[in-house]
Design a protein that fits this description.
By secondary structure, this protein is α+β, with helices and mostly antiparallel strands. It has a single domain, classed as Jelly Rolls, CATH 2.60.120.10. Helices cover about 15% and strands about 30% of the residues. Helix 2 runs antiparallel to helix 3.
Amino acid sequence: MEAAPRTTDLKRFDASQGPRIIGPDDGRAVDLGSIGARFMAWTEETGGGFSLVEHPMPPRHLAAPVHKHSREDEYSFVVEGRMGALLGDDVVYAEVGDLAFKPRDQWHTFWNAGDEPCRILEIISPGGFEHFFDELGTIMEASEFDPAQLGELGDRYGSSFSPKACRGCARSTGSITRCCTWTSRRARAPDIRQLRLSKPSRSSGIATGRV
């Protein structure tokens, strides 16, 4: 994924600026190895209410370590492929057209659960966490990159990570062949025994477990 020039003059978008359409190849993009991030709407452009990021994922890749946010909620809309997700104690699967809720303060992660590419639109509310991905992409490009930097970066964005739970998730689901490439030795980790993997029963809720 080719990175567009970094935007340094972000500001609230309003009608006075005329029509605006973000095309399928537009916007700054970074490659985080196990997942990509294409920035479609920055928090500065939306007035802070939300930001929008596209995440492409290679087949059977775990996108991120098990983690939780303290400042924002996330919503994942699947536009291609099949996404698996650990949401609290439940493992769920979302197909094209499904929207998965990932509220703040909930331990979670997600992955491409199929043999074809998966692509999701990530709504972040309030906005701001997209800058985490942007900064992570920059530090991962450095030859002296140390995965321990993830914990320090997460602290600044109010997020906690658990690489041990990440490995347990990969073993337990059976649908992941590649773990994420940006794990941290210094991140705060919960007791993995509290992250019990289970398949939820079918319900009328959005993104219920389909196996």
